[in-house]
From TrEMBL:
A biological process term (GO) from this entry: defense response
Chain ranges of the Disease resistance protein winged helix domain: 426-496
Keywords: ATP-binding, Coiled coil, Leucine-rich repeat, Nucleotide-binding, Plant defense, Repeat
Ranges that cross the membrane: none
A Pfam family it matches: Rx_N
Protein name listed in UniProt: Cc-nbs-lrr resistance protein, putative
Gene3D superfamilies referenced in this protein's UniProt entry, alphabetically: 1.20.5.4130, Helical domain of apoptotic protease-activating factors, P-loop containing nucleotide triphosphate hydrolases, Ribonuclease Inhibitor, Winged helix-like DNA-binding domain superfamily/Winged helix DNA-binding domain
Domain Disease resistance N-terminal: 10-96
Domain NB-ARC positions: 174-342
Span of domain R13L1/DRL21-like LRR repeat region: 706-828
CDD domains documented for this protein: RX-CC_like
Coiled-coil ranges from the UniProt annotation: 28-55
Top-rank taxon, per record: Eukaryota
Length: 1181
């Protein structure tokens, strides 16, 4: 049964009634009595909500009452929200200058007051009627801890049937090793916590450990206590004594109990299991633990819990996080249950379905056992298929052991945490959820309760952490950009969906008859592209479905552009693709969260934001990243509640609203990668709550100086541009960078007028010293003669980039930085020598450096190091680009990747590099052949890239010794005429790419003979390449073949039939191709075939009919095939009719990168391509 969660909504409405904004508004004064009555009714209802929400699972009548109450509460919330929105707009009007237009005429205000007053009265009357009904349910007022079902089935004992527990042998041995190690070390009382979600088998694993013979011998006493959620010290002390004695205890006083326990444990080595602990009280655990310390050294407590916070409080040893069962062990456990009463011939036909059911369980033993037991007495295939297709809650009594066990964790949550968790069901199973976005969605929907002066985002962080600790979230990952994502286990997702299934809905066109009556939160996920002829009807079905959902408060569109005509008047959170802002945006007055996503490779994006955005008075989160806007309307500054504004990668954005200083609630202004931005708004220093500002552009105008940063406690990244406008040391110090301890990345950039006063620039840079917490530093365009000493005083630096510091003759002693991993030095024209000073004066220089890049160093000649000192002990990657005078490098023993881009005397750069794993040779125009010996010593080389050698004609036999080479990439070698037959010696080669080799006509017949490991072959932009040799028959492991922009290619060899492992075949922009051989019918593994811009390809072979594994066919810009593959009537339609997903696009539509249907933009993503003329440079990246 679904939960109806009303507490959070009622709390939010009461908060709105008490808000300052609502009290200020004139209409509130006119309706004072009505609002007071509404508040009184809601307060009365709130008092009994906790009891009602607990009883709803046992009383359908109570749940129906809660559902009715919630419908009315939503309406009340909407109308109060409208009042508050008007109040906020009035407040903004008073605070703004006369430039901002008047929002409401007195006539409009009167109409507003009358209409809303009438609606408010109606809602209040409906709410009174619902409140009256509560009396017949005999609900009681409750405040505080939630009562949790404590039925008998939750009790555990130490007894175990080992034959029923599979796949936990390694876990058992790990824990026993911990016990015995603690015993040997004679530690004082140790506590080992086993933590994991419900149903994983923590208790069963502990029972295995408890009953193991080695454990029996190791301890004088063994005690088992099932704690559950009642962590009373007296009760648990009594249970421990009873477990030791084997009989009940009549003692009631805690002091007497604890003294008795001390005597029983004194001098004895004991093992105590506290199973199923929920209490997060440090104090209670300390009180229980006191008498336990009287045992002998080596005594141990094992705690099992679902909550990581409990484990952290109690454990003295590292927490043991119990993982999921492997798929093989899950299958064995399922077979043990499901097939116990079936004959071999009976269950053989059910095995395939059974394995899919096991996958559904996601490695949770409880679910595996429950579903296996459920199917034990079911013999019909239809029953098994029904179980496979059903959600857990749809299994009725058969699934009754799964959800209650999982639901226990949910039942322990306060109402706001329940609501936040249940809302996550709006995301499809196995989705990666972005932590920051999830918190903003919670806030937008009113799920995060205010608490004193704390920011809602901080409280949201605590909620996320709490749900993670309680195993509701898993696979937490921090990405390189600082983004944190998580997932939900499929069964936990089932739990969330079972709770919210009357309000949350994930669109499925196959289940349109089963959707809830009043959907409040809707997600239309990205889906695989359907056959072309079904595309338009499916898009229409999705759009019509959105229109039919008239109560939506959240809408997430994964692959569908929002219809510009959409009217979403109740919307709180909107996350979607847009190519045009809907006309109704200004009417979405309840909107808090607006995320306009833009697919980067499509040239269509939002270009203009209407002035009516100012009506979104409640908006707190605005994300317009990747859009094509040039500016935001000045009316944006009326968004007084806006806290987060993300405009990253808006490449055309040239200015922000001048009045941004009025947006006092802003916490984040992300304008990273906005290269066209010419200025930041004046007096931005007024935004004292600002924690993130990606770019600040210094100007000499009033309110635009660097001193605006003084009082801002900025974090994350900050790029300060046009530092040439800073007059001197005093002004630079006013930025107060040294106090900004949360700043992780800092870029200091001088403009085009830099260098006019080098001494001043040295003063300025010297006074811009950041806090020592900084991790990344970039200095660009600086024209002083010396770099500041403070650079080596920032011990946490991980990344440093020095760019276009053209007048500095020496490199600073960066070798002193202990954590530096990435160093890039570019455009330092005055540097002639890398001296020992660069390494610093320590014994071990650059101890952490992994990647070092030198670029555009035209005068660099030598690199000197001092003997006897260890330098660069971890260097993995070294790049030299356009350093023509450098002819020799020091030795780097750990170097694995070397990239050389130079036109100078290169050979000394490659010598003594026999330990390389990756080598890239680029831009050596003097080479016509690869010199003898250049590649001979690289016996460990796994990746080789040779690029931009325009005069290279032959590789001779330099490939002979590359026995472990896995990836070979030859690019832009215009005169390369042949590939040596030595290619056949590359038995380990997995990937081969030939790009821009215009003189290459074919492969050698024998050159492919030994490529038994090749998985991917790409030939692209080779103007004269005419045919694959017959040697292609030897590529029996090839999985992907790509033939792109080879205009002379006219056919494929019949030997292609031997490519039995081929899964993907792509042929694009091959003007000369006229046919595909019928032998393609032998490609039994082929699952995807793409053919594009082949205007002379006249037909598809009948052999396609035999390809039962072929799931996707894309045809684009092939006029003959377009005609022959028409549904039903085309000559080639019978050859492809069996393929599930077919995409056929005419040349004109493909060329423009969009698909047009009856004059309208077809709004589905997933298969966009750029025009041919833009693709050559990135054809095979």
């Amino acid at each position: 049964m679904a939960d109806v969660l009303v507490s959070t909504l009622v709390r939010a409405i009461l908060g709105n009634l008490n808000s300052l904004a609502l009290r200020e508004i004139e209409v509130a004064r006119n309706l004072k009595t009505e609002l007071q009555n509404l508040q009184s009714t809601l307060s009365t209802i709130q008092a009994v909500l906790q009891d009602a929400e607990q009883k709803q699972w046992r009383s359908e009548a109570v749940q129906n009452w809660l559902r009715k109450l919630k419908d009315v509460a939503y309406d009340a919330d909407d109308i109060l929200d409208e009042f508050a929105a008007k109040a906020l707009r009035w407040r903004a009007r008073r605070q703004m200058s006369s430039q901002v237009s008047d929002f409401f005429s007195s006539q409009n205000a009167t109409v507003f007051n009358f209409n809303k007053a009438h609606k408010l009265k109606q809602v209040r009357q409906r709410l009174d009627a619902v409140a009256e009904e509560k009396n017949k349910f005999h609900l009681t007022e409750k405040v505080g801890e939630v009562e949790v079902d404590d039925r008998e089935w939750r009790q555990t004992s130490s007894l175990v049937n080992e034959s029923e527990i599979l796949g936990r042998h390694e876990d058992k041995e790990n824990i026993i090793n911990v016990l015995l190690t603690s015993l040997r070390d004679q530690n004082d009382l140790s506590v080992h916590a086993i933590c994991g979600m419900g149903g994983l088998g923590k208790t069963a694993l502990t029972q295995l450990v408890y009953n193991d013979e080695r454990v029996e011998r190791a301890f004088d006493l063994k005690i088992w206590v099932c704690v559950s959620d009642d962590f009373q010290v007296r009760r648990l002390t009594k249970k421990i004594i009873e477990s030791i004695d084997g009989s009940p205890s009549e003692v009631r006083e805690l002091d007497v109990l604890q003294r008795h326990l001390q005597e029983k444990l004194r001098g004895k080595r004991f093992l105590l299991v506290l199973d199923d602990v929920w209490s997060e009280s440090n104090e209670m655990w300390d009180r229980l633990k006191n008498p336990l310390t009287r045992g002998a050294k080596g005594s141990m407590v094992i705690v099992t819990t679902r909550i990581e916070k409990v484990a952290l409080i109690m454990a003295t040893l590292p927490i043991y996080h119990l993982g999921y069962l492997s798929e093989d062990n899950s299958w064995l456990l399922f077979k043990q249950r499901a097939f116990q009463m079936k004959r071999k011939e009976e269950y053989t036909k059910l095995e395939g379905i059974g394995k899919q059911i096991v996958k559904k369980c996601g490695g949770v033993p409880l679910a595996v056992k429950a579903l296996g037991s459920m199917l034990r007495l079911k013999h019909r295939e239809s029953d098994w298929l029904s179980a496979k297709e059903s959600e857990i809650w749809e299994l009725g009594d058969d699934g009754s052991t799964i959800l209650p066990a999982l639901r226990l964790s949910y039942d322990h949550l306060p109402s706001f945490l329940r609501q936040c968790f249940a809302y996550c069901s709006i995301f499809p199973k196995d989705s990666e959820m972005d932590k920051s976005n999830l918190i903003e969605l919670w806030i937008a929907n009113g799920f995060v309760p205010p608490r004193g002066q704390s920011e809602l985002h901080e409280i949201g962080e605590e909620i996320f952490e709490e749900l993670s600790w309680r195993s509701f979230f898993q696979d937490l990952t921090e990405h390189n950009d600082g983004t944190i994502t998580c997932k939900m286990h499929d069964l936990i997702h089932d739990l969330a969906l079972s709770i919210m299934r009357f309000e949350c809905y994930i669109f499925d066109d196959k289940k349109l008859l089963e959707f809830p009556e009043k959907i409040r939160h809707l997600h239309i996920p990205m889906r695989p592209a359907p056959p072309f002829h079904l595309e338009a009807s499916l898009v229409k079905k999705e759009k019509d479905f959105i229109k039919s959902c008239s109560f939506l408060r959240s809408l997430v569109l994964g692959g569908l552009f929002l219809d510009p005509k959409s009217s979403l008047k109740h919307m709180r959170a909107l996350d979607c693709y847009m190519n045009q802002v809907p006309r109704s945006l200004g009417k979405m007055i309840h909107l808090r969260y607006l995320n306009v996503r833009e697919y980067p490779s499509i040239s269509i994006s939002v270009k203009r934001i209407p002035k009516s955005i100012s009506n979104l008075a409640h908006l707190t989160y605005l994300n317009l990243s990747h859009s094509s806007i040039k500016r935001l309307p000045e009316s944006t500054t009326c968004l007084q509640n806006l806290q987060i504004m993300i405009l990253s990668r808006c490449y055309y954005l040239c200015e922000l609203p001048k009045g941004m200083k009025h947006m006092r609630n802003l916490r984040c202004v992300n304008i990273s990668h906005c290269g066209s931005l010419k200025r930041t708004p004046p007096e931005i220093g007024y935004l004292t709550r600002l924690l993130e500002l990606s770019i600040f552009i210094v100007r000499k105008d009033h309110g635009c100086g660097i001193s605006q940063l003084k009082e801002l406690n900025l974090g994350k990244e900050l790029c300060i541009k046009e530092l040439n406008n800073v007059t001197g040391s005093t002004e630079a110090k006013s930025a107060n960078l040294i106090t900004k301890e949360n700043l992780k990345s800092l870029s200091l950039i001088w403009g085009k007028h830099a260098g006019e006063c080098p001494h001043n620039e040295e003063e300025v840079l010297g006074s811009l010293q950041p806090h020592s917490n900084l991790k990344s530093l970039q200095i660009c365009g600086y024209q002083g003669l010396r770099l500041p000493n403070w650079m080596i005083e920032i011990p946490n630096l991980v990344s440093v980039e020095l760019d276009q510091c053209e007048r500095c003759p020496r490199l600073p002693p960066l070798g002193k930085l202990p954590l530096l991993k990435f160093l890039k030095i570019r455009g330092m024209d005055a540097v002639k020598c890398i001296s020992s000073e660069f390494c610093g004066d320590g014994v071990n220089s650059f101890p952490s450096l992994e990647e070092l890049n030198f670029d555009l160093m035209p005068n660099l000649e030598t690199w000197r190091t001092l003997d006897g000192r260890e330098s660069f002990p971890r260097l993995q990657s070294l790049t030299f680009r356009k350093c023509p005078k450098l002819i020799e490098l020091p030795e780097f023993p750990t170097l694995r990747k070397l990239r050389i881009w130079t036109r100078g005397d290169y050979f000394g750069l490659f010598s003594k590099r026999d330990g390389l794993g990756s080598l890239e040779i680029n831009d050596l125009s003097i080479l016509t052949v690869v010199p003898h010996g250049l590649l001979q010593n690289h016996t460990y080389l796994e990746e080789l890239t040779i690029e931009s050698l325009p005069n290279l004609k032959s590789l001779s036999n330099q490939l002979d010794n590359l026995s472990v080479l896995k990836h070979l990439d030859l690019r832009d070698c215009d005169k390369l005429e042949d590939i040596p037959e030595a290619l056949q010696n590359l038995n380990a080669l997995e990937s081969l790419k030939l790009v821009g080799c215009d003189s290459l006509v074919s492969f050698p017949v024998n050159g492919l003979h030994g490529l038994t490991s090749l998985r991917t072959l790409t030939i692209s932009c080779c103007e004269r390449f005419a045919f694959l040799s017959n040697g292609v028959m030897h590529l029996t492991q090839l999985e992907e073949l790509r033939l792109l922009r080879c205009p002379m290619l006219n056919s494929l060899p019949e030997e292609i039939q031997h490519l039995n492992a081929l899964r993907t075949l792509t042929i694009s922009d091959c003007d000369g191709l006229t046919s595909v051989p019928n032998q393609i019918e032998q490609l039994t593994s082929l699952s995807k075939l793409e053919i594009g811009l082949c205007p002379n390809l006249t037909s598809l072979p009948q052999g396609l009919r035999s390809l039962t594994a072929l799931k996707t066919l894309w045809i684009r810009g092939c006029p003959h095939l377009e005609r022959r593959c028409k549904i039903e009537g085309g000559e080639d339609w019978p050859n492809i009719a069996h393929i599930p997903s077919i995409q056929i696009m005419p040349y004109e539509k493909y060329y423009h990168g969009i698909r047009i249907f009856h004059g309208s933009l077809l709004t589905r993503l997933g298969d966009w391509k750029l025009p041919r003329k833009f693709l050559k440079s990135q054809s095979d990246s």
